[in-house]
Design goal:
The chain is α+β, with helices and mostly antiparallel strands and about 475 residues long. About 45% of the residues lie in helices and about 10% in strands. The strands form 3 sheets. A 4-stranded antiparallel beta sheet has the order 1-9-4-5, with no helix packed on it. The termini are far apart.
């Protein structure tokens, strides 16, 4: 059988395999409430597992048992609850339990069983030893973080005594003193709770202390002192000012460079080169000329059309058809002369009306008005040509195009050509509108079967003077 270790190494994490104690059997008797410490001292509460060896069932923490005697200093130092004892509260648990736990180790983990085994095997030498006879002792003992056993600390004597009494009472089963000891234990627990609260208050006060309670220096946290920071900022400011001045100089030089430093092309500006301008102007002139020619062809065809192209009816020109006249003459011989006279007056007035009685427009004769041509073609191109603001400061040489004067002259010439052709077209239209000589060659046959004036006069005279 192997000898259990005397002590365990300190494990602040509560996860070292060397400090995991499994199947540690404790004999606790059969009383209702039973308490016992584990063999290796302080342990991490979250690692604790207690099993009843009689039933081989794991006990439920909180309802069948709880860990107690929390070590405040160790718990605060390592950030986890660390306890020293276990209390069984379920009276149905058997007299023996098996415990598994993660021991804190260090000075808190001396095994009593291991000490007993070690002492038994010692060959004790009772000869006195002097300080001088001790070898390999250091000349000085540097101060380092360390722990103390509770009964070695001033002011903790009564706690140690109380715990010893409580442990003795539990082990010996003093039934008559059990209640008194239980009350005393509760008082001790309350006092410990008070100490924990005081420790928490002190810890919170320390945590909210922002006046550098540990006297930490700038170098300890990897930072600069105020003087070093000021000097570094001054150096950096000088470097940046010098750098900004250099950059500003380069920017000023670039801004003053009017030799097209970015190699901007006419395509990037959305403009035309000389070749493109010439081609666009030629294409526009060709398209415009084609439109004018087509309109002239349409107009000439309309002028030469003598087959009543407007489908004018007798009703539209205020006259009667042959049937209407014959019926009127037959039914009203007596009043026909008056009506014919009035009709002749109306017809003559219509014939002499030079203010476009039919309401003809340029659209229904297949041509453009001067205003339409001016607004749709001449004005947009004139507005574009007259835009001389040159917002990008591009020169003629950079664009490879004509000067403003050359472009204006070319556009003015083309504009005059368009105006002349439009004026000529308008002259032709006006001449046609003012032509009162029946330019379409209309006759009574293509105007709804109406009679001529001479024919009507002869018909009326013969009808009025005929016998019967």
């Amino acid at each position: 059988m192997s000898t259990p270790p005397l002590t365990l190494p300190l494990d602040p994490t509560g996860s070292a395999a060397s400090n995991l104690i499994t199947a540690e059997v404790q004999t606790i008797g059969t009383r209702g409430t039973r308490a016992f410490p584990v063999n290796y001292g302080l342990f991490f509460r979250k690692s604790l597992v207690v099993k009843d060896t009689t039933t081989n069932k794991v006990l439920v923490q909180g309802s069948q048992y709880y860990a107690t005697q929390m070590d405040v200093e160790a718990s605060m130092r390592y950030g986890q609850e660390i306890d020293a004892s276990i209390v069984i509260t379920d009276s149905s648990v058997g007299p023996n339990v098996s415990v598994m736990y993660q021991a804190l180790g260090g000075v808190n983990s001396i095994s009593q069983a291991a000490v007993t085994t070690a002492v038994t095997g010692l060959q004790i030498d009772d000869a006195p030893a002097t300080w001088a006879s001790i070898t390999n002792k250091p000349s000085k003992y540097p101060v380092a973080p360390h722990q103390h056993i509770a009964d070695d600390m001033y002011g903790m004597e009564f706690v140690v005594v109380a715990l010893d009494r409580l442990g003795s009472a539990i082990q010996l089963g003093q039934g008559t003193a059990q209640g008194e000891l239980q009350a005393y234990a509760e008082a001790v627990i309350q006092e410990l709770i008070g100490q924990i609260a005081a420790a928490n208050t002190a810890l919170n006060a320390h945590a909210s202390n922002f006046t550098n309670p540990h006297q930490v220096t700038a170098h300890q946290i990897g930072s600069y002192t105020t003087e070093e920071t000021t000097a570094a900022l001054a150096t950096e400011t000088t470097n940046r000012v010098n750098g900004d001045s250099s950059i500003q100089g380069q920017l000023n030089t670039h801004a003053a460079d009017h030799t097209n430093p970015h190699k901007v092309t006419t395509a990037q500006l959305g403009a035309f080169s000389t070749t493109q301008s010439d081609a666009a102007m030629t294409a526009m002139q060709t398209a415009l000329q084609a439109t004018i020619t087509a309109n002239e062809t349409t107009q000439n065809a309309h002028i030469a059309n003598y087959s009543n192209p407007h489908q004018v009816t007798a009703a539209q020109i205020g006259t009667w058809t042959t049937g209407q006249i014959a019926s009127a003459v037959a039914s009203q011989k007596a009043t026909l002369q008056t009506q014919v006279t009035a009709f002749e007056s109306s017809l003559n007035a219509h014939t002499s009306n030079k203010s476009n009685p039919h309401g003809d427009t340029a659209a229904n004769i297949g041509t453009w008005t001067y205003t339409t041509i001016q607004n749709s073609i001449v004005s947009p191109y004139s507005s574009h040509v007259n835009n001389l603001s040159n917002p990008h400061g591009v020169t003629i040489a950079q664009l490879g195009t004509y000067s403003a004067t050359d472009i204006n002259n070319n556009i003015a010439y083309q504009y005059q050509v368009v105006v002349n052709e439009v004026n000529a077209l308008n002259g032709t239209i006006n001449a046609h509108v003012g032509n009162q000589n029946n330019p379409h060659g209309d006759n009574v046959n293509n105007t709804g079967g109406a009679y001529t004036g001479a024919y009507l006069q002869n018909l009326i005279n013969s009808t009025l003077h005929s016998p019967g």
